[in-house]
Structure formats: C-alpha cells, structure tokens
C-alpha cells in the first residue's frame, strides 16, 4: 500500500511546518508548499524526512491558479494522486477598519479565500477519487470572535467555515471528507513577538491558562487527515484552550 500523498500550503514555517512534519512522522509523502521562503521550505523538507516521511518543496502562490495547477502537476509527477489537502496558507495585514484600504482588504481575502478555492479546485478530483480523501482547512478563533484591527482576517477566516461545510456535502457521496480546524492563540514566532502584557492577557482569558503549541494543532490536523476520522465531516474543530466556554 502506497503512502498517503499530502499537500500542505504555507508549510515553510509555523503551523504549516508543524503539520508537514507530523504527517511525515505518519509516513506520508508531503508536498511542502511555499510562496517565497525557499530556504525555510527546504528546512521543512529536511524535518519531514527526519521524521520518517518523504517530501518535496514546491513554490506556488496560492492566489495564482496557474501556479497552483503547476504544483498539482509536480505533486503527481513526484508522488502520484493527492489524498490529503491542508489549506493552511495565510497572511495578516492588521489595521483599524476606518483606515483599512481596499488593497489591504483584498490581499488578505485573496490569500485565505481565493487561495483555498484555487487549491481545493485543483486537487478536488484527486480527493474525490481517493479511497478516503481528506480536505482540512485551517481557520482561526478570530473567524468566530472577531478582533480589533482584523476585519479582513476575521471575514476571511469566517468564510472558510461555510466553504468547509459546503465541500463536506459535495464530497460526501465519494466517501471523502472536509473539516476545519480553528486554532486559538498558538506559540508561533508571530505570537512570541507580542508584548508580554498582551500575551499575559491572552493567557488570562484562556480557561487552560496558556497558549497552544504548534504540535497540538498538528496532532488534530493529522487525525482529521487519517483513516481514523472517517465518520467526521463538515466540522469546525476548535483548538483554543476553552476560550469559547
């Protein structure tokens, strides 16, 4: 039986890197997508292979359908049809709504929503034809709660909820699933750079009293990517330390 082939977008660092590495530990073949961080993507490939998987790094801007389709072709050439797609690529451009430009609005929605659309469209036939295809979309607690200065990001992440549930319905007849993971505040480099008082406020507002780890998000994603999740579809899985309790 061949290893599962997995595509993880935005996998050069942070949560995407953690997901790719964890899939490698499960023996998967992993396509490490990146937009511009070639050296960091190469490091992710090394980590996947050290964990026990096989990997290649593939450059593609998820907002560009032609580049996404080229990534699909390279994935097919290297590993064959794709069984798992993890739509993780994302950016932030934070600014108060009254000062937000249309460009700042469009740029964030393009990556999160157009990027998710492009990648899912490119790999849809693979997922539908797989014995048990898996679509896992990464959203955020911000899509549920909103956040000051993040109208663009919150809107994009909320849109991923509806997209996931619709794809779950459309994939259901094929036996493949679509789910969404909505992390809370996780110790990535971006969060670690926040002022200490803000991090302490986040901890105090979280029932478990701490921030999450990349590994905790990756464990949930890889469970949803596995055969063990066969009867779970259309769900938004919150991994946020109980913030919505």
From TrEMBL:
<dbReference type="InterPro" id="IPR036291">
    <property type="entry name" value="NAD(P)-bd_dom_sf"/>
</dbReference>
<dbReference type="InterPro" id="IPR057326">
    <property type="entry name" value="KR_dom"/>
</dbReference>
<dbReference type="GO" id="GO:0032787">
    <property type="term" value="P:monocarboxylic acid metabolic process"/>
</dbReference>
<comment type="similarity">
    <text>Belongs to the short-chain dehydrogenases/reductases (SDR) family.</text>
</comment>
<dbReference type="Pfam" id="PF13561">
    <property type="entry name" value="adh_short_C2"/>
</dbReference>
<dbReference type="InterPro" id="IPR050259">
    <property type="entry name" value="SDR"/>
</dbReference>
<keyword id="KW-0560">Oxidoreductase</keyword>
<dbReference type="InterPro" id="IPR002347">
    <property type="entry name" value="SDR_fam"/>
</dbReference>
<feature type="domain" description="Ketoreductase">
    <location>
        <begin position="4"/>
        <end position="188"/>
    </location>
</feature>
<keyword id="KW-0521">NADP</keyword>
<dbReference type="InterPro" id="IPR020904">
    <property type="entry name" value="Sc_DH/Rdtase_CS"/>
</dbReference>
<protein>
    <submittedName>
        <fullName>Beta-ketoacyl-ACP reductase</fullName>
    </submittedName>
</protein>
<dbReference type="GO" id="GO:0016491">
    <property type="term" value="F:oxidoreductase activity"/>
</dbReference>
